[in-house]
Amino acid sequence: MDAIEKNLLKEVAELDSLPVGAYNIRANGQLDGRHTTANIDIVTKTDKPGIDIYIKPGTKNESVHIPVIISKAGLKDLVYNDFHIGEGADVTIIAGCGIHNCGGDSQHDGIHTFYLAKNARLRYVEKHYGEGDETSKRVMNPTTIVHLEEGAQMEMETTQIAGIDDTIRKTSGDLAAGASLVVREKIMTTGEQNAVTDFVVDMNGEGSSANIISRSVAKDHSRQEFISRINGNCACAGHSECDAIIMDDACVLASPQLTANSVDASLIHEAAIGKIAGEQLIKLMTLGLTEQQAEEQIVNGFLK
Amino acid sequence: MDAIEKNLLKEVAELDSLPVGAYNIRANGQLDGRHTTANIDIVTKTDKPGIDIYIKPGTKNESVHIPVIISKAGLKDLVYNDFHIGEGADVTIIAGCGIHNCGGDSQHDGIHTFYLAKNARLRYVEKHYGEGDETSKRVMNPTTIVHLEEGAQMEMETTQIAGIDDTIRKTSGDLAAGASLVVREKIMTTGEQNAVTDFVVDMNGEGSSANIISRSVAKDHSRQEFISRINGNCACAGHSECDAIIMDDACVLASPQLTANSVDASLIHEAAIGKIAGEQLIKLMTLGLTEQQAEEQIVNGFLK
């Protein structure tokens, strides 16, 4: 692994060296390293690119790192990863993809399907990062499909702060009784970048809940679209929230949809799009910051 | 005018007798009465069904009533009404449609286009009401198109509480600098009724603002869809709010969309769908109301 690849790994997985616990590192479309534990098995798919990750019932306090790094220009990588989380397990999975390319467009499409068995708990962290020359595009289209059985709980944190020119991020989930899904998304787009996020959640089981929180900053000429569809099909609670800071000549569209198919569904949505409040800027500028520094401070705080 | 027609007139226009000021009464697709004033002229269109209403610049504190009543079964009425409100005028227009039909479906489609000149102010009230036998359908598809010139202000209040089986309510507006549009919509659906409301507002002028407030109650097997699209194309403020009470086996869908095409656009949306809070019901029931009476009280308060 060279210096560029090591840096990508640090950006997407906060790793300086090989991770503790189970891991599977994919570099330029190939397996680059794998470690399994007594409770976590990782198996290469035979019918298509990707892996199956099996986590035994009752596994606690273990983690799986599955970073993908692409340092070749012109590479188009498609991968199917399936996660089978056993009953009562409580684990963390850290995914992420970093692209460094010069002299050609590169693309990574990751299709991740999660099967959480009864009362399983999962924290899933996903970070997307790109770097390289200005003429090469970096494209990432993550698809996340979540199946939550009774009482299963999943928290998903996704971050895309820099370097991705084009992304369509699709997340869908179906929730059985008592299941809970929390999604926290952070996106920043700059230059001519384009980002679309599309959430669909079906609350099918009594007492299930979904909470989708999106925070985004759109700078320069970038364009963002936030779509969410929350369907309450039973006694359930759904909430979605989309806050966007718009700067320069950017454009932001928020299109959340709530559907109550049951009298016992309680659904709430909030969205706000606006620029940084002038008074906030002035306050920081009276403390000695330039306008640009003040904006950066506010944006960093907003996306923290 | 018979007793049925008089009752319809009362329901949609709160009129016991002929109104004061200008009016145009349309009954069963025909002109039934018209009155103009020195400042307000009403002219029958020659190219299609409908009227042009001309309000002179500077006209203040005058009103126009334009009720439509249909007491024939099987009638399908389509009308184009255009409203030309002169510069600096400040008037009230009360529209509304009532259908009473037995033994056949009746339908009224009213296409209303408003041209508000500079600094004109308009309060526009529209009420839809239906009654008749259970086997005859009552359909109303109101389309409202609003053009607001610089500094023009329009407040629109629409109410559809009972008796309309099927409705697609389309409202669109474009706003020049400093113009303001406020829409308050109240809808209640029962039985197998279906109601769709669709708002599109383009804020094109600096300092324009739009505020769309929808309150609805869906009972029995009825179905409601709320769609709004607010486009901020300049320094402007947009707000939309959709609160729905869902009861019985009803279904409610809210799909608001915000698009900020300018860094100076400030857009906010809120939506909440849920049933009547149990504690509210219990409180009223401890005061001696039956559950049904308590529900009615709450629904009436919500739609007031």
Automatic annotation (TrEMBL), chains A, B:
Species for this entry: Gemmiger gallinarum
What is this protein identified as? SufD family Fe-S cluster assembly protein
Q: Which family does it belong to?
A: Belongs to the iron-sulfur cluster assembly SufBD family.
Q: Which residues form the SUF system FeS cluster assembly SufBD core domain?
A: 84-302
- Source species, domain of life: Bacteria
The protein's matches in Pfam families, at most eight in alphabetical order, are given as: SUFBD_core (PF01458)
